[in-house]
């Protein structure tokens, strides 16, 4: 393939993924590959040349999304205030979760599974969150008797909450207080 | 209907509900009314006399369940340690949630909805949790700048968590710490 055609193909692939993320993120399993093609301004054959099945397209959308979030987390590892960086990214993931869940459901509906590449990319994100957590703990901003499993469990739990943003924000403050290193007494012990 | 027949009918109804709660709580939408009849030792006609549709049966199971949990919460309003009572009941609801979710999914699958009677019973439970929360706040065991919406949001979030019991228990301790009234500084403000 000549270079310009390769560049075009790459641009098409990127645009298809952008549109697919938006369309499936908003409508989940109800969205169609045809709609993605139309809104991306390409023929349906072009979509299927890049992604032979709807499941393959959705898998690629999820992988790219996890990779992007992981990169964002990694960029925050250099932030000045490790406690704020950890909390801000936690909030960001929770706010972002509804579209992620919609895409994941569309993938299941299309007969795909969330194992394989998407699971690997998801683990990469989890590790990056773990690094943010450790950095916040070393800075004394997060208590050091908690570990990633319970923190990620809270993140997943809060991500699935479909309530209004204000209530979610308040619930998150409670969680962050529970995670905070405090000087006063009366603290419970998460990991003795 | 003569009195003994009425008593028998009432006993059958109770047994059908007991079995249905167990069967649908374990298997969700995959369970059948036939299995309920068989395990309750009654004919399928008897089940349908009490509950004309599968949805009606599941609705009745959910209502009874919410009512029972509400009564348990109300009984705890007399507990000596209001903080422990609140946390114990919170834990109890989270531990109990998987079967509740399975029954709710079976109800949706059977074409029923969770409005109506079940929603009313669910609101009764929510109010009882609110009373436990207020009592814990008055006793100084739970911070008084939180209100029921964010606390219930946390309860719902933790209830949907399908992770192992130990991780859930640790995540709950973090939440309880976030809810605790603490004397030290550095506390965030949930409701200014």
UniProtKB/TrEMBL annotation, chains A, B:
Keyword Transcription regulation: yes
DNA-binding positions: 32-51
Domain HTH tetR-type: 10-69
PROSITE patterns in the record: HTH_TETR_2 (PS50977)
Taxonomic source organism: Dactylosporangium siamense
The keyword RNA-binding appears for this protein: no
The name this protein goes by in its record: TetR family transcriptional regulator
Alphabetical keyword list: DNA-binding, Transcription, Transcription regulation
Pfam family membership, one: TetR_C_43
Entry GO MF terms: DNA-binding transcription factor activity; transcription cis-regulatory region binding
Domain of life: Bacteria
